[in-house]
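It is worth pausing here to work through a concrete case rather than discussing structure prediction in the abstract. The textbook approach is simple: state the sequence, then state the predicted structure, then interpret. We follow exactly that order.
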Amino acid sequence: MKKRNLLWIYKISMIAVPLAVIAMLLYAKVLQLHAHSIRGTHLLINEVMADNLSAWKDENGVYADWIELYNPTDQTVSLEGYYLSDTKNELTKWAFPDVSIESGGYLIVFCDGNLEEGSLHANFFINADKETLYLSDQNENVIDSMRIENQQCDLSYGRMYGNSDEMGFLPYSTPLEPNPAYFIKNNEPRADWGEVCFSLEGGLYDESIEVELRCDVEDALILYTLDGSEPDINANIYEKPIRITDAGRPNQYTTKKCVLFPSSNAYNADTDYGVNEVYKATVIRARILKDAKLSNSIGTNTYFINSKYSLPIVSLTTDPYELFDDTEGEYVLGYTYYTMRKYGKNLAYVNSNRGTKLTGHVEIYDTDGSVFEDDMTYSIAGNTSLSQNIQKSFDVVLEHNKITGDMFSASDDFAYEGFSLRGTGCSEVMANIITYPSAFVSNFISDENVGGQKSRFCILFIDGEYWGIYSLMEPKGKEYLSEHAGVSKKDIDLVKPWDPVWDKSFEQLFYEIKEREFYEKADYDWICTKIDMENFMAFILAETFFGNIDALELGTRNVYIWREGGGLWKWQIFDFDSTMLDNDNYLERILNLEIAENETQERINFSTWLLQRLWRSREFRDDFSLYVRLQCKGLYTRENVLSAFEEHIRIYEPELQENLLRCEKGYTKWQQFSYRLRGKDTTYDNYTMDDWKKVVNDQYQFLSDRTERMLEFMEELEGKGKGNAD
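Step two, the predicted structure:
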């Protein structure tokens, strides 16, 4: 009897349970439809794809980034006078054409930076790493925004169907259709449990220490890591004090292959970088876990035992996988490079070229005992140095605090939201980089109202490993200009000459300059009402005095042109790696530089092109000659230049030997064995202190003669009558 009853119950359940599940799903769908049918009061940014490789083509058959708008109101909305932007300080970046979205309808805007592709193509790209998109109405009021970060190819990010307040990664893209009702994955559950307390603050200690961790949350666990990664449920569980010593440990990160062309006698696939053991600090990162929820905050402290550095110490802590994973890490050559090489393609594409924004924590331990720390977003910076240097540079954006100018030996009235960490750089003559010429020249001209970020030498650590001597520098661009010029960022018009999209007023100036020959005084008088002529002459003098081939000879990639609110255009220069190479007449070399007579080359080489046109003007030549003579009796006297260079050398020389050892490269043990079997040379060229002394002496001689030579150069040009109308 019991068996028959159980069988009957089983048969009923086989029918009833599925019906109940179906009923629940239908009910949930009805609730979603009801929620979706509730009308909103304004347009929404509904879905975004920031890395469109194969998901949705535009009308020209091209895969471009796109933004989808949705109209939840009960009326058709005209978008004429509305704007889309990826910059909070420039909400009117792209204006909609005369187009409407009907009630419950959708609209796609492609973000490919090319207005010529169609009326619904915006003049900006979407940054897949981290970006906020803004939709504004006719009165420039933001009516909706969407923040995205860490976007993956062909995955869209948007609002959940039926719940416009929930946003996340969608399981599939739905352009011009309702979004899915669920996301790919939910974020890890977090809670505001507070911070972990460390018994000892990070910093320099003379002997081994023990660090205790505690928190004020009852029945909570403390999770911690020692490799720089953020603690998660797989991290160590704190049970007893963490002992920190200066015992040697194998290099974890400095041996990663990260240089495309490291040497003339070795190829990167056969070399190890950082072959010498480096000094190790210990990074502790800790957070609280309770009720399966991780604390929002992560405590980070770096400890240095028996370190004897004479310079400030900067510790960058970040997920080592994101930087140093052999295929995906941002600091290594990476999967794409090795794949291309496998098929015979020696492309200069390495992971560090991607410009990906990463997150982490920064601590700065100054020589006076003060400490600065904050969470950060950062990216690897540079151009050629991205793929050719072991000590790559970084641009850092702070999350919560500002760093004051005194950290860079600038005015303590300045406060910045970020800074740069610059490595050796990449010079035309590679040996010159070991004297840090960019740091020297930048500091030397930093008070001349023509750029040149103030900087201090520091010792950089990444995830606890010694990385070497770096320059801790003021940020460049609008943030630098805002502080130094005392103006608001939103009032600054900034032009990057190599960028195909220019400020409209500057583009108009370019065409007006093209229409003038500058043989007549009236033309020179006119341009003096458009650009700050003294600033421009200071720019030309700095470039030609130090012989900087990067900015004038190789295109103006290391200069910004800017103005404040309709004022005179000015120059801001940075990056002086390729300086102090040849003690020749660099000014004449620039004046003789051939620039193709086409608009593209004239724009890219704008500063050189402008100088060549201005040199036709007798008035400009006279003004410039007078300016050079005055400066050679002022800032650029032989005594000033040599004194500044000697101080520059004095500051970092005590730390240089350790830095050179960190940068030594060599063949792997297996490669050495293979070479010996084949009778090949296994020696590897590396820079030594003797090499450094030779370069220092060469640069000292360059600077010793340069002031006098600069005056001679001017006389040579005047004697040749170069640029005279007759």
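Step three, interpretation. The two ends are 122 Å apart (CA to CA). The longest strand covers residues 371-381.
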